[in-house]
Amino acid sequence: MQTKRDAFLVDVERSSLAARIIHYFDKNIPNEEIARKHPEIWVKTRRYDPPEVRKTLLSRGMLRENIVRHAYRPFDIRWIYWEPETKLLGEKSPGYWLHAWSGNPTLSAQQKPRREWQPPQVVQNIAGLDLIDRGSSNFPLALSEVGNDRTRPNLSLSIENYLKDRALPPETVFYHIIATLHAPTYREQNAGALRMDWPRIPLPHDAATLRASADLGAMLARFLDPETQAPGVSVAALRAGLRVLGLPTKRGGAGLQTADLGLTAGWGSAQFTESGNPIVMPGRGLIALRDYSERERAALEAEGMMLGLSLDEMFVLLGSKTLDVHLNSDAWWTNLPEKVWAYTLGGYQVIKKWLSYREHSVLGRELRPDEVAYVSDMVRRIAAVLLMGPALDANYARAKANAVAWEDGKPAATGRSARRSTNPILITAIGS
């Protein structure tokens, strides 16, 4: 799905988006006013005639239920008006819309990336093409059956039978794929192949290994999906090493007030294309690189003890330095480990990308307290993902060592040699 008109069809605020769409569908408002107020949707192209499109849509009316949550960029969930008719919404993928209901996790991946391959994202909202730079393809966990209210697993029959033989639920392979593709060793060992085709996944033969991998993937999915609560990371008693990360801070130690929440450190700016469409360009912003404080080091050491990692191993995973990332000259988020700050997903530097869209000159207002807190949540989630690296690598090694051969769309004949084969299964096996 690709809007081609983000500025009109997408918004961080549901109320702002709804107001625009209601205005567009008001028959008493002439086209001239729509063109004046929303010039980004009044540019004619070969496939899009603004007056004709509006005439068609006015005759039908607004679809209020089609204002839904939208995975716009990594860790950046917004609202979209999904329009099924005309080219107001550029590329719709109506078949995907049927399966993109809230609560149905979707794995967003990429085939033959033009740049460096990126591990998949996990969202539970309708995902856009640009969720991954240069284009994402999306694999929902379940499919909605047309003509009734039932759903079914998004699995090939051979995989479905494979899981039934091991008394494992349908979602097992979905979460095993997530765990595998986020293992740093998997990415390193398969770097060349990942630039050529879909990722290939070793499917372990025994149920215990596959179940353990799926459990690890389900935990990882909670961290990657900002709309899913993650105990110890986003809610409840926070883990020792995470509770000191990304803390909102004001110069002098005073509490932050509304007036302190303007994001004016130069993270982004609004510019316009030749056709008049607004785009956001990233800026340099303001950061301060420093050593960890004694309190921060002690917290990381306690976190490492819980995970079975030394402090030096924690530094390898998170970075030996940390940063203070500024909202403005007098307020910042303190203690963002350097590898958390540098973390990319979908080809985007996650936290910096989010900030670029919320620069005051772009957003048009100060951040709300919940948005400031959301940055802290992102920092903890990303740190938790990075700290899973050793467990994900060990999990991948077990799956690879116990991989079943897969030939002609089904498991090969059983036996010692087949169980020990490293022939992989395509990720596309989860697609029917």
Care to describe what's here?
The protein has helices spanning 6-9, 14-24, 31-37, 50-60, 94-97, 157-165, 171-181, 184-189, 191-194, 207-224, 294-307, 311-318, 338-342, 350-358, 360-363, 369-387, 389-401, 416-419; strands spanning 10-11, 67-73, 76-81, 106-109, 121-123, 126-127, 137-140, 142-144, 151-153, 200-201, 247-250, 268-272, 278-282, 287-290, 322-328, 331-337, 344-345, 348-349, 406-407, 410-411, 425-426. The protein is an alpha+beta fold. The strands form 8 sheets. Strands 1-3-2-6 form a 4-stranded mixed beta sheet. Strands 11-16-15-14 form a 4-stranded antiparallel beta sheet. Helix 7 (171-181) crosses helix 10 (207-224) and helix 10 (207-224) runs antiparallel to helix 17 (389-401). The two termini are 20 Å apart.
Which helices and strands appear, and what pairs or packs with what?
Layout: H1 6-9, E1 10-11, H2 14-24, H3 31-37, H4 50-60, E2 67-73, E3 76-81, H5 94-97, E4 106-109, E5 121-123, E6 126-127, E7 137-140, E8 142-144, E9 151-153, H6 157-165, H7 171-181, H8 184-189, H9 191-194, E10 200-201, H10 207-224, E11 247-250, E12 268-272, E13 278-282, E14 287-290, H11 294-307, H12 311-318, E15 322-328, E16 331-337, H13 338-342, E17 344-345, E18 348-349, H14 350-358, H15 360-363, H16 369-387, H17 389-401, E19 406-407, E20 410-411, H18 416-419, E21 425-426
Parallel strand pairs: 2-6
Antiparallel strand pairs: 1-3, 2-3, 4-5, 4-7, 8-9, 10-21, 11-16, 12-13, 14-15, 15-16, 17-18, 19-20
Helix pairs in contact: 7-10, 10-17
